[in-house]
Each structure stands twice: as structure tokens, then as C-alpha cells.
């Protein structure tokens, strides 16, 4: 299991506590220190079943100047923008060994990814 997190984020700290309580092994990627590439982001949004703009944090995207149309024509632009401005990416993103991926901001998402590890 891998978790992309920002240690200053309360949702990330909650997710780590849940992973620890469940006793699962995981690796941490501090995505602000080691930003994902556009290719990695494309893989993540595909596993999430979302589009890049769906994992953008509105305030941070706006602050970064990301003002792109939300359509297929601009999908690659969104991926590049998020890779360039990782602070605009929702967090935490957790991927189980079987590929199950969630934005772990709520208990239901955390339960789903933990269930994939069982």
C-alpha cells in the first residue's frame, strides 16, 4: 500500500492513523517533496475512475493559476498543471496492492482501501 500525503494535513494524519490501527504495511510519499509526474497522475485518476480536475483542490488550483476548461481536450493540460503544482492535488491518495485507489478523505474510502488489503 502507498499513501500520498502532506504531513501538515489533518485528513492525511487521520488516514495514517487508520492504516496504523489496521496494522497494514504501507509506504509514504510526501507528494509535495516528490511530486507525481503527469503520467503517474494519469494512472491514478484512471484507477480512481475520475478526471484530473476531479482531484484538484479548488482554492489551491485557483491560487496556482490553474484555470482550464474541464474537458477531454484539456485533460493533458490538467495533468501537467497538477504535476507542476502538486499542492493543488487532493489528499491523501491511497493505493492498495491490488490497485484499489481512493482519495482517503472519509471513513468509507478508507474502509474500501483497507478492505482491498485484507
TrEMBL record:
GO terms for molecular function: arsenate reductase (glutaredoxin) activity. The keyword Oxidoreductase applies. It comes from the Bacteria. Its EC number is 1.20.4.1. Pfam families: ArsC. InterPro entries: Arsenate_reductase-like (IPR006660), Thioredoxin-like_sf (IPR036249). The keyword Cell wall biogenesis/degradation does not apply. Keywords: Oxidoreductase. Belongs to the ArsC family. This is Arsenate reductase.
Amino acid at each position: 500500500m502507498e499513501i500520498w500525503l502532506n504531513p501538515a494535513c489533518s485528513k492525511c494524519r487521520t488516514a495514517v492513523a487508520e492504516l496504523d490501527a489496521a496494522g497494514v504495511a504501507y509506504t509514504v510519499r510526501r507528494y509535495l517533496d516528490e511530486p507525481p509526474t503527469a503520467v503517474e497522475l494519469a494512472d491514478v485518476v484512471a484507477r480512481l475512475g475520475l478526471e484530473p480536475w476531479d482531484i484538484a483542490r479548488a482554492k489551491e488550483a485557483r491560487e496556482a493559476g490553474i484555470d482550464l476548461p474541464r474537458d477531454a481536450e484539456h485533460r493533458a493540460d490538467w495533468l501537467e498543471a497538477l504535476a507542476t503544482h502538486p499542492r493543488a492535488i487532493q489528499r491523501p491518495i491511497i493505493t492498495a496492492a491490488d490497485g484499489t485507489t481512493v482519495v482517503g478523505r472519509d471513513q468509507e474510502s478508507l474502509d474500501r482501501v483497507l478492505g482491498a488489503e485484507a
